[in-house]
Specification:
about 350 residues; alpha/beta; FAD/NAD(P)-binding domain; five-stranded parallel sheet; 10 helices; about 30% helix; globular; binds flavin-adenine dinucleotide
């Protein structure tokens, strides 16, 4: 490969932000381009804290111009909508971009556009940066809030919103229970807390349509809602499956070294990818931990050296913020809760922001 390889980082996802300084340090002459639709990338770990009012929005977002400048990378504000592994080109809203090595870290979209009225009146929690802006605008004149999706992210957001605006929050889950992914004891704790904070929970409920000031359920229940948030239905961007080998859900399939199957020199990381031999739940912690291996392997490909495997951890610590400055930590079925858990998470998050935003 040439002395100054062209490296294209598609999406300012968590893994790319961790990898970028390492790539620059090890390949001082590389031409590195980072492309993202927004000049800011939100940090999901602190987003519920932004909604609750514990953080200012800019404490929980990465300034991509600054990060690019610090790391000698070119930042393009635009969206990729295709990649040609043979021609080594990406098609983007900012024109075609050639590369020698590319990496895709674009997350998943939480869009529920199949629900009538969602596009006009709803907002998806992903992309996080757009959602954070919308929440800030909403607080100028707050009203009732509805959150669609009773997974951990939906419950965290419901508790955060209730902390900020009071008991005017509704959570809608189409399955028979909220946070089904959690063991029963922490699940019960979250349910009790939702009830205590006055969050109305509808289970086994499907949204029929979204109006400017209401959500209508399939059973015709009408819920007052000035802001309707989708925290469910996360899907990878459709162009991935058009251009790269993907699983049935449209996540790019990658080998142990994070290179896309049969596409040497093209990597995929974070929520938009699945490691075929070691699939893991979609979580920021996994994306963050891929960062250093991604950097190492991009450098290895550029230098014609052997890549190394990423060894994802089997279990990861989940810390759920509980609206106020209190948290719930879950590790392999055991859980603890209290204000010290929130302070612990706050320290981890602030440290990550300080280190990664460099
Ligand atoms: C409310 C909430 C709280 C969460 N809390 C936690 C937590 O505490 N711990 C945890 O581990 N996980 C948490 N998660 C999950 C976490 O958000 C994701 O797993 C994590 O963000 C995935 O990171 P990523 O690297 O895949 O990309 P993302 O962080 O999703 O970033 C993707 C980037 O790609 C950009 N992009 C998108 N499309 C394109 C395109 N076509 N072209 C170019 N760029 C594009 C986006 O603008 C974005 O900047 C939470 C999620 C939510 C919704």
């Amino acid at each position: 490969m040439q002395d100054a390889p062209r490296i294209l980082l598609i999406g300012a996802g968590h893994a790319h932000l961790v990898a970028l300084p390492d790539i620059r340090r090890r390949l001082p002459d590389a031409q590195i381009t980072l492309i993202d639709p927004s000049p800011f990338a939100a940090y999901s770990g602190m987003l519920p804290g932004v909604v609750a009012g514990h953080y200012e929005p800019d404490q929980a977002r990465f300034d991509l111009s600054w990060i690019a400048q610090r790391n000698g990378a070119r930042l393009v504000t635009g969206k990729v909508d295709g990649i040609d592994p043979k021609l080594r080109q990406a098609t983007t809203t900012a024109g075609r971009m050639g590369f020698d090595i590319a990496s895709v870290d674009i997350g998943i979209q939480g869009d529920l556009r199949q629900i009538p009225g969602f596009v006009e009146h709803g907002v998806a929690v992903k992309p996080l940066s757009r959602f954070a802006e919308r929440w800030t605008q909403f607080l100028e004149n707050p009203g009732p809030v509805t959150i669609i999706g009773g997974g951990v992210a939906g419950v965290e957001l419901a508790l955060a919103a209730a902390h900020c605006i009071g008991p005017h929050v509704t959570l809608i889950e189409k399955g028979p229970r909220v946070v089904p992914e959690l063991p029963s004891a922490p699940r019960r704790l979250l349910l009790e807390l939702l009830a205590e904070r006055g969050v109305t929970v509808h289970i086994k409920s499907t949204v029929a349509c979204i109006l400017p000031e209401d959500v209508i359920l399939a059973d015709r229940t009408r819920i007052a809602s000035d802001l309707t948030i989708a925290a469910a239905g996360g899907q990878p961007a459709p162009w991935l499956a058009r251009c790269l080998p993907c699983d049935a859900q449209g996540h790019a399939t990658v080998g142990p070294d994070l290179q896309v199957t049969d596409c040497p020199g093209i990597f995929a990381v974070g929520d938009c990818a699945v490691i075929l031999d070691a699939p893991r739940p979609k979580a920021g912690v996994h994306a963050v931990r891929q960062g250093p291996v991604l950097a190492r392997n991009i450098v290895a490909v550029a230098q014609g050296k052997a890549t190394v495997p990423h060894k994802p951890q089997k279990h990861h610590l989940k810390i759920v913020s509980l609206g106020g400055k209190s948290g719930l930590a879950i590790w392999r079925g055991a859980h603890v809760a209290g204000p010290w858990v929130w302070r612990w998470k706050d320290r981890i998050d602030r440290r990550f922001m300080a280190r990664t935003g460099r």
